[in-house]
Amino acid sequence: MSLAAGTRLGVYEVLGLIGAGGMGEVYKAKDTHLNRTVAIKVLPESLAADIERLARFEREARTLAALNHPNITQIHGFEASDGVKALVMELVDGTSLADRIAHGSLSVDETLQIAKQIAEALEAAHEQAIVHRDLKPANVRVRPDGVVKVLDFGLAKALEPASAGNSDAAASPTITSPAMMTRMGVILGTAAYMSPEQAKGRLADKRSDVWAFGCVLYEMITGRRAFQGEDVSDTLAAVLRGEPDWTALSPEVSRPIVALIRGCLEKDWRKRIGDLSTARFIIEHEADAPAGVGPPVVSRMRRSVSMVAVATSTAVIAACATLMVTRRLAPPLPVARSTIPLPMGDRFSNTGVHVVAFSPDGRRLAYAANGRLYLRMIDRLEATPIRGTEGADEMAGRGAFFSPDGLWVGFWQGGRLKKVSINGGTPVVLCAAENPWGASWASDNTILYGQSNQQGASKGNEGIWRVSSGGGTPERLVKLEAGEVAESPQMLRGGRAILFTVARPDDWDTARIVVQSLDTNTRQVLLERGIDARYVPTGHLVYAIDGTLFAVPFDVSRLALTGPAVPLVEDVAQQNVTVQFAISNEGALVYVPRDAVLGSQAQRVLVWVDRQGRETAVAAPPRAYGYPRLSPDATRVALEVRGQEQSIWVWDLARKTLTRLTFGPKFQRYAVWTPDGRSVIFSSGERGSPTTPRSLFRRRADGTGTVEQLTQSAIAQFPQTVTPDGTLIVREQRPPTQIGGTSQSDFVVLRLDGEHHVRPLVQTPFGEYNAEVSPDGHWLAYEASDSGRFEVYVRPFPNVDGGKWQVSTNGGAQPLWARSGHELFYESRGALMSVPVTIGSTFTAGTPRKILDSGYLLRIPAEGPGRMYDASPDGQQFLMLKESRAADEQRPLPRMILVENWFEELKAKVPTK
């Protein structure tokens, strides 16, 4: 779309066309409010018309707008006006580096001046976990005063592949769209400057920018591209298999610069220079040194320097550069930060324990996502699922930790402590562990884990336990008071003391970091406030307060702090007393940013859908909703909101307000209204497996008064349905799972008036879920697995042994009575079904038919059983949940931050002497 001079885009007045490229046309424009000249990049129609791609582009642009560096083109904003989508940027005068090189190679001095500024720009971006992905001479402009500006940071071209006949591979557009910018298996970048890993369709990181920097540096010095071909395919082949013409480098180019270029263009990214700070160091020191591949050529400016000093300086710089790029002597490397994003669509598992672990040698990461564990080698771009750790969110592998040799991963799954080889195989059960709070693998091949039993404190199993890594009977090493938890235990001082966090779930703020001697059983408080402490080989304790990592010097021989604490890393994800970070013995830190876990829950919206499939939006803001329940008068909706906490909220349909109903450190689920609409009954307990103890509570729907506890037991209980007269509630309960056994779910009836007496209702060897009492109070609909798959059944109520009828015909779950009593709704294979029924002295059911097809969140195995919809009083509209793409696009991507050589920073900021 071409814009004529004088066209207005919001507050911007177009002055004229500057040029056109892969991202669209660029115009010079005037900001009429701020009276400044800017550049406006109008996006191609193919990108502007694609809602999904445009949303990702806008999200990336917002991130890039935070970059503020003298060598990076500033992004001012994003403008949408009259169907035109445009990026507003700083206007940079001068010529592109591509135009400069088109007139011939640059001098060594000019090359180093430009290269130093490019390196500084890239280094600043990398510090904020931003990768350029498309560095090339055309994206570098040099102002008349010599200042260099790097353009198009992170904005990969949104075009289709170049045609096979395109002979100018350097000008070939980026080979995919920004919609896939962070996914594996996608080729990004411009062919002549793409790193080998990008050419293979793998993830780009800062080392991909290092490669492109080497290509640009080579091209400035030689006047030719490092990798050439007749078309894109030939160019990519050269990148993957070819070598630059090293003889094209002039003898005036010094050995350190040659070593730098070679280090940048290592095809194996593990051998490549790992950080642009190395390149900047070499260039800065080389600026005062003479050239020297061949006989030294000394400029007039340097003739006053003695030849001895020149030779010495050259040798020292060359030696430093060679050591840095070859790694043969493994010199210390600078602290380097990089982002490890989860593949598009993946989310961290909301486990309540650690989601990331580091092997002691720093070569492997394990993390919990998508209801399973993944293993990722640091020198690989892909993560591999660990077989046998998958399951529903509460049954999936979690709390991973490594063996001292890094060859095993320990984890907790479904009430059992397990281990699995990093080479694959079947997980090995070590022991029962109902509710662990962190674990570690000691050097003597024993495993420590903290355990609590908040609902079943009478069992007395709170404390720190030890079990052999080969399995066996656990031994309790540390006993806690009832109601306390011990988190992240770590063995110290040759196995004679344990470091851990002790806390009470009813008051997390009083958590303390302690050490306890196994010889005397005496406990010493090290820090009155702090959680999740780890001892590291530098002689420090690293711990957290409110999502900030602190370090304090610690004498492990005396078990004493020896200096003040210093804050080091902010905004680390934290839940209760669990902080999402891990440290290798070799000095690397990995952590999950706070927003990456908060954003891990899929955002959903509520909609009304009629029987013809027509939707009407509900104004409730996007959240991680679940299990909506319409109040008896149809004016309010009680639902679950997931996140780092999990609580019950109420949405007022008329007033359009969302109010939190339940609070506290525990997780609340499955809201059920009382027939008078005055109260909500829900389940509350610690997060864990489906059999983790939970009890029933009742609270007034307006949030006033105190919370009334209806039950207390050592089993999992979930409210199902309240009888029309309000006197009884049917609850589902799940007995504890035994190792080698199976879990079942039964129904019992609890009286709500007077004393809360309980009596059995439906008890079979199978699983029964989602009970619903009919509007007349005489029939019970539910789902059960009697036939080998879940079907919907109806029984008389309360005399459930008076008959049994199957309602669904091809699988069914989540039954709901129409308020008329003449129709049953249920879910089957992702669709909403309806079946006419007749109730009276007996029960009959008609033929099921589909009302609404898939497209709504009716079945989510990772979130367990529970009805995910409701119906209006007249049965003509249905309250449904659906994913909110727009809200999800605004959320930060789930990711980890890797800090290599972090011990160097730790020792500098927190000296131990």
Which range best describes the helical content: under 10%, 10-25%, 25-40%, 40-55%, 55-70% or over 70%? 10-25%
Q: Strand content of the residues, in percent?
A: 35-45%
CATH topology of the largest domain: Neuraminidase
Total number of helices: 13
Count the domains: 4
CA distance, first residue to last residue: 65 Å
Oligomer: single chain
CATH class of the largest domain: Mainly Beta
Low-confidence stretches: 156-189, 290-331, 454-458, 737-743
Describe, in plain words, how this protein is organized in 3D.
The protein is of the alpha+beta class. It has four domains: 8-90, Phosphorylase Kinase, domain 1; 97-326, Transferase(Phosphotransferase) domain 1 (Transferase(Phosphotransferase), domain 1); 336-595 and 893-909, Methylamine Dehydrogenase, Chain H, CATH 2.130.10; 604-890, TolB, C-terminal domain (Neuraminidase, 6 Propeller). The chain contains 13 helices and 61 strands. A six-stranded antiparallel β-sheet has the order 1-2-3-4-6-5, covered by helices on one side. Strands 27, 28, 29, 30 and 31 form a five-stranded antiparallel β-sheet that branches. Strands 54, 55, 56, 57 and 58 form a five-stranded antiparallel β-sheet that branches. α4 runs antiparallel to α6 (206-222) and α6 (206-222) crosses α8 (255-264). The longest helix is centred in the first third of the chain and has 20 residues, at 108-127. The chain is globular and about 100 Å long.
